[in-house]
């Protein structure tokens, strides 16, 4: 089996592989997969900050046969673009995100728990982690109830847009829901007071047409929803597993948000939802005395960099008091760094606080957690818990 590209569902302990690779081959050429895998914190940081790499194209010449609406979205996402197009998309995404309203997260959590709790048992992943982040973003933008329902039910399919390889069924589903998602978001955006100033600002400062600016705005709001789905789901899941496994760190009679937030940040380092991301070299690059040639692809193993002993003391120990836990690479770094780091940490902290503050006993009902068959993310499929 390849030590670089594997499904997280097939591997019990990916961190053991990362440790071996980090110790022996921090910059590794995987001949079979024609990809460089980078494991150290120093080199991952160097590449994430480098101007000599791009985000690889995931659907060259539309070989996946996405339709007009899906293409419109995918071709304008900040996450997938480079150069000037990236600067415009990122600025748009950041203005959109800066305009979300603060809402009562607890009310949504209560509804999600009430909907699915049967005899005190609930699948934390299905009932909370997959729904909460998207609902919070939709409601923070003021979407109507029906639109929240439609988009939160379809988001699992829309997210498949980001896959490198898509099955014919996935392409069909993406094509089917892209048109309606696009028109719902476009209509709603046009009702928001910050929208016209946003369009004016972007189209004037970058001299692009109003129509193009609308497309960029709609696509990147959909992008915020897409980006929030898997990663936040994973953080909510992995943090719950850590808080239960290490409950002695958070005394039951003294649940406080500061402690939970420290635990969430350490979970981001120790057991992150996103394990790797990719880049394409656009010039020759020298790394660790090795030449990475123009047009070669790099896999940046962020989850390995997070356990690099040159960066973190005693990296294999889960320690919420380590002073530099926040220097993990889980949200990326550089131009493409995640714009929702604090949102994600806050949402997870509030959710776990709600759970532990409102229930006396929270227990995991199965020991063997299975993971999704994904290469870039380690996401528990289900976590059945009892809460009383
Ligand atoms: C635990 C939660 C999250 C994690 C671990 C995470 C992780 C990441 C990472 C690693 C990147 C950079 C990818 C790269 O450089 O190749 C990224 C980018 C991005 N994230 Fe997040 N993310 C999370 C939540 C969110 C949420 C909730 C949103 C939206 C509200 C979001 C929106 C974005 C966007 C728009 C980008 C693209 C930025 C750009 O390329 O300019 N993320 N995220």
Walk me through what this model shows.
It contains 14 helices and 10 strands. By secondary structure, it is α+β, with helices and mostly antiparallel strands. It has a single domain (8-387), classed as Orthogonal Bundle (Cytochrome p450). It has a 5-stranded mixed beta sheet, covered by helices on one side. The radius of gyration is 21 Å and the shape is globular. It binds protoporphyrin IX containing FE (HEM). Protoporphyrin IX containing FE is lined by residues 78-79, 90, 93, 133, 137, 223-224, 227-228, 231-232, 235, 273-274, 277, 330-332, 336, 338-340, 343-344.
Compact summary:
This protein has 388 residues and is an alpha+beta fold. It is 49% helix and 9% strand. Protoporphyrin IX containing FE is lined by residues 78-79, 90, 93, 133, 137, 223-224, 227-228, 231-232, 235, 273-274, 277, 330-332, 336, 338-340, 343-344.
Number of helices: 14
Provide the number of structural domains.
1
Distance between the termini: 43 Å
Could you give the order of the helices and strands? HEEHEHHHEHHHHHHHEEEEHHEE
Overall pLDDT: 95
Calculate Rg over CA atoms: 21 Å
How would you sum up the global shape? globular
* Distinct small-molecule ligands in the complex: protoporphyrin IX containing FE
Strand content: 5-15%
* Overall helicity: 40-55%
CATH superfamily: Cytochrome P450
List keywords for this structure.
388 residues, alpha+beta, Cytochrome p450, five-stranded mixed beta sheet, three-stranded antiparallel beta sheet, 14 helices, 49% helix, 9% strand, globular, binds protoporphyrin IX containing FE
């Amino acid at each position: 089996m390849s030590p670089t590209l594997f499904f997280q569902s097939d591997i019990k302990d990916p961190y053991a592989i990362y440790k071996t690779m980090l110790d022996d081959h921090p910059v590794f050429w995987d001949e079979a997969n024609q990809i460089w895998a980078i494991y150290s914190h120093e080199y991952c940081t160097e590449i994430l900050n480098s101007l000599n790499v791009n985000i690889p194209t995931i659907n060259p010449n539309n070989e996946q046969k996405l339709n007009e609406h899906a293409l419109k979205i995918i071709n304008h996402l900040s996450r997938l673009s480079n150069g000037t197009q990236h600067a415009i998309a990122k600025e748009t995404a950041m203005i959109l995100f800066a305009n979300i309203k603060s809402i009562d997260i607890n009310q949504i959590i209560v509804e999600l728990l009430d909907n699915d709790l049967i005899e005190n048992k609930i699948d934390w992943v299905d009932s909370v982690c997959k729904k909460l982040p998207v609902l919070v973003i939709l409601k923070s933008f003021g979407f109507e109830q029906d639109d929240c329902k439609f988009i939160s039910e379809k988001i699992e399919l829309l997210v498949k847009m980001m896959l490198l390889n898509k099955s014919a069924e996935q392409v069909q589903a993406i094509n089917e829901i892209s048109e309606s998602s696009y028109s719902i978001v476009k209509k709603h955006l046009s009702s928001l007071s910050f929208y016209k100033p946003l369009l004016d600002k972007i189209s004037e400062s970058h001299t692009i047409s109003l129509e193009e600016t609308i497309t960029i705005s709609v696509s990147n709001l959909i992008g915020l929803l897409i980006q929030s789905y898997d990663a936040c789901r994973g953080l909510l899941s992995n943090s719950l597993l850590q808080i239960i496994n290490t409950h002695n760190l958070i005394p039951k009679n003294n649940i406080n948000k500061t402690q939970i937030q420290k635990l969430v940040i350490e979970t981001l380092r120790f057991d992150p939802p996103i394990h790797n991301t990719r880049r394409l070299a656009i010039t020759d690059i020298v790394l660790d005395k090795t030449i990475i040639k123009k047009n070669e692809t790099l896999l940046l193993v962020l989850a390995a960099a997070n356990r690099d002993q040159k960066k973190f003391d005693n990296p294999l120990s889960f320690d919420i008091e380590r002073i530099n836990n926040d220097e993990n690479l889980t949200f990326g770094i550089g131009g493409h760094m995640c714009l929702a780091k604090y949102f994600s940490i806050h949402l997870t902290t509030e959710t776990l606080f709600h759970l532990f503050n409102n229930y006396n006993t929270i227990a995991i009902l199965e020991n063997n957690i299975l993971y999704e068959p994904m290469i870039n993310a380690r996401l528990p499929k289900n976590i059945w818990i009892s809460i009383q």
